[in-house]
Specification:
The structure holds two protein chains of two kinds.
Chain A: E1 4-6, E2 10-13, E3 19-25, E4 31-38, E5 42-49, E6 56-57, E7 64-70, E8 73-78, E9 87-94, E10 104-105, E11 109-113
Chain B: E1 9-13, E2 18-23, E3 32-38, E4 45-50, E5 55-56, E6 61-64, E7 70-75, E8 84-91, E9 103-108
Parallel strand pairs in B: 1-9
Antiparallel strand pairs in B: 2-7, 3-4, 3-8, 5-6, 6-7, 8-9
The chains are: A mainly beta, B mainly beta.
């Protein structure tokens, strides 16, 4: 089975801190994604990557950056955390092939910014 | 991106079939229809997808209308573990998935 592992289930940080969320997949997927999920807003795409060192902005990239130095690892960075970035963060991966390739998700990191 | 419309919530009795509807009247000829579900405290989980023909797998069946403007996810025999939010999604040339608000399915014992 595909496994997408997020480094922390729960994380508490302070306003202004630099925060790193890590995601690793074990299925040699080309694509990796970062979403955030908020009550009433559903899942929203922050960034995605279709290859090592490649990245594309999603719908809400402001305040975030990403890094993909190795195929299996995709990091989300909050440069200077703010309270409105308190959320559930979900990582996903898939093979390239858009329309008919499912995305596989991790169990999420619940991040609280105090 | 083409949009989907789903009921906010549904209820079903345990061990009975469940039919979850999805409308996608602006679907294009190349859009695949995907379904995901999200159980409490977990990430979304892929359920099934199709293009034109009905599809079956170990989790569910997907019935697609002839004009493709709607589809139905069928859980043949609901269990309490099927209580989740179910998302109907259209996927086109882009690798992004746009998640709507989904249908919250409640299973009554």
């Amino acid at each position: 089975d595909v496994k997408v592992t997020q480094s922390s289930r729960y994380l508490v940080k302070r306003t202004g801190e630099k925060v790193f969320l890590e995601c690793v997949q074990d299925m040699d997927h080309e694509n990796m994604f970062w979403y955030r999920q908020d009550p009433g807003l559903g899942l929203r795409l922050i960034y995605f990557s279709y290859d090592v060192k490649m990245k594309e902005k999603g719908d809400i990239p402001e305040g975030y950056s990403v890094s993909r130095e190795k195929k299996e690892r995709f990091s989300l960075i909050l440069e200077s955390a703010s309270t409105n970035q308190t959320s559930m963060y979900l990582c996903a991966s898939s093979f390239v092939g858009f329309r008919n390739q499912p995305q596989h998700f991790g169990d999420g990191t619940r991040l609280s910014i105090l | 991106d083409a949009k989907t419309t789903q009921p906010n919530s549904m209820e079903s009795n345990e061990e009975e079939p469940v039919h979850l509807p999805c409308n996608h009247s602006t679907i294009s000829g190349t859009d695949y229809i995907h379904w995901y579900r999200q159980l409490p405290s977990q990430g979304p989980e892929y359920v099934i997808h199709g293009l034109t023909s009905n599809v079956n797998n170990r989790m569910a069946s997907l019935a697609i209308a002839e004009d493709r403007k709607s589809s139905t996810l069928i859980l043949h025999r609901a269990t309490l573990r099927d209580a989740a939010v179910y998302y109907c999604i259209l996927r086109d040339v882009d690798d992004k998935i746009i998640f709507g608000k989904g249908t919250r399915l409640h299973i009554l014992p």
